[in-house]
Design goal:
By secondary structure, the protein is α/β, with parallel strands linked by helices. The chain has 2 domains: 130 residues, Aspartate Aminotransferase, domain 1 (Alpha-Beta Complex), CATH 3.90.1150; 233 residues, 3-Layer(aba) Sandwich (Aspartate Aminotransferase, domain 2), CATH 3.40.640. Helices cover 41% and strands 15% of the residues. The chain has 15 helices and 14 strands. The strands form 3 sheets. A 7-stranded mixed sheet has the order 4-10-9-8-7-5-6, sandwiched between helices. A 4-stranded mixed sheet has the order 1-2-3-12, with helices on one face. Strand 8, helix 9 and strand 9 form a beta-alpha-beta unit. Helix 2 runs antiparallel to helix 12, helix 4 packs parallel to helix 12 and helix 13 packs parallel to helix 15. The longest helix is centred in the C-terminal third of the chain and has 21 residues. The protein is globular, with a radius of gyration of 22 Å. The mean pLDDT is 94.
Length: 418
């Protein structure tokens, strides 16, 4: 099989092939992707998250010291001494696990402390914590929205939000398009019991920010509630790092604030912050919460410390933004298309799956770890290399990446030759 003639979309459903036949064909596709050294997935790291990471090369077996541009650990809190120490202390005090689901025997004092802390941080009355960011979004929406309700959702919203809307009616609107949003809200105004507008605060593949102030204003005009997923916003945008509501001056006006603990907060899990009535409801109706063992003590303690760090060490956020501004200016000056990116996420849009695969292969050989994003994850004409920055990337490391991208951009015809 020649993998360059296919995409993952071709294997989502193959007419006439049962699951074993489909799996065999997809496995043959993956084998050829690997043979061409285009398989830049599940690379095995031998060190923790950081601007430089030791990675086991799947093709040569050697260990590479790579500039890491594939992490969502923007503030590098996974390696912060206070975050690590808090987790170690909790591990020794409480053990490795919570021992049960939250409603029965799994809730410990650290869970309650974390819920209160994240609620206050997000300017909400109450919060609930989950062991998975995907589970917090999907489980919340599955429990709140039914067949009499409607989800008015940005078409680029995260997969967990989309999957959470499977019990209800779904009306997608064009990405960050206020006219499209208002047009749909006009049409659904008197047709459904609950109308919930669902957006990301920062979009994971594009790095742009939702105009949340205007979204809230339009939603309230038509009697709709608003839910924002803060997965890529918490800790980074807003004057104090509290995310998109702070950035857009609508703290306290967003009905449901969701987020993950696995990105800027450096651990794993998710949360929902809202009024106390919604949180009470979720405690008893959100199946991904009720039927999952509670968050491990070590993670809960590390997250409490991580929020403290965000609040008390603004220099981490300030240095990240220095890196963001420097990297963006230089990529744009070279002539790369970054779409509408505004944050630490850099979509370098190439528009050709094969060139993306080849450039990522070459970057890997140059000890630069970046991710390909191909069709069907994005439209073919928007195929891209996704890079993300950390607060402790050095200027020298960023310059190494910029020089490599300039050379490869010219070699593959993305930038004009000089």
């Amino acid at each position: 099989m020649d993998s360059t003639k296919y995409s993952m979309a071709d294997f989502m459903n193959i007419p006439g092939k049962d699951i074993m036949e489909r799996a065999k064909l997809f496995s043959e596709f993956v084998d050829d992707v690997k043979a061409k050294h285009h398989f830049q997935y599940k690379r095995v790291a031998l060190s923790g998250s950081g601007p430089i990471r030791r990675v086991l090369d799947p093709y040569t077996g050697e260990v590479r010291e790579m500039i890491n541009l594939a992490s969502n650990d923007y503030l590098n809190l996974t390696m912060h001494p206070k975050v690590i120490a808090a987790g170690q202390e909790a591990l020794l005090k409480y053990g490795a696990g919570a021992g049960s689901v939250p409603l029965l025997g799994g809730t410990i004092d650290l869970h309650i402390e974390l819920e209160k802390k994240i609620a206050k941080f997000k300017g909400c009355e109450a919060a609930i914590i989950y062991t998975s960011g995907f589970g917090s979004n999907a489980g919340t929406l599955l429990s709140l929205l039914q067949e009499e309700d409607v989800a008015v959702i940005d078409m680029l919203a995260h997969a967990s939000l989309i999957d959470g809307c499977k019990n209800t009616n779904v009306k997608p609107f064009k990405h960050n398009d206020l006219q499209s949003l208002e047009s749909i809200l006009k049409r659904v105004k008197d047709k459904y019991r609950t109308k919930l507008v669902i957006v990301d605060g920062v979009y994971s593949m594009d790095g742009d920010i939702a105009p949340l102030d205007k979204i809230v204003e339009i939603a309230k005009t038509y009697g709709a509630y608003v839910m924002v997923d803060e997965a890529h916003a918490t800790g980074v945008i807003g004057k104090n790092g509290r995310g998109t509501p702070e950035h857009c001056n609508v703290e306290g006006k967003v009905d449901i604030v969701a987020g993950t603990f696995s990105k800027r907060l450096g651990a794993v899990g998710g949360f929902i912050a809202s009024n106390k009535e919604i949180i009470t409801l979720l405690n008893f109706y959100s199946r991904t919460y009720m039927f999952s063992t509670a968050m491990t003590p070590q993670v809960a303690a590390s997250l409490i410390a991580a929020i403290d760090v965000i609040e008390n060490e603004p220099e981490l956020r300030e240095n990240l933004w220095k890196n963001i501004n420097y990297f963006r200016k230089n990529l744009l000056d070279l002539g790369f298309n970054l779409g509408n990116s505004e944050t630490a996420i850099f979509p370098i849009i190439i528009g050709d799956d094969y060139k993306v695969k080849e450039i990522c292969r070459r970057l890997h050989e140059m000890n630069i770890y970046a991710n390909p994003v191909l069709y069907p994850a994005v439209p073919r004409k928007l195929a891209r290399i996704r890079m993300s920055l950390m607060t402790n990337h050095t200027k020298e490391q960023l310059d190494t990446v910029l020089n490599a991208m300039e050379d490869l951009g010219r070699e593959y015809g993305i930038l004009c030759q000089v």
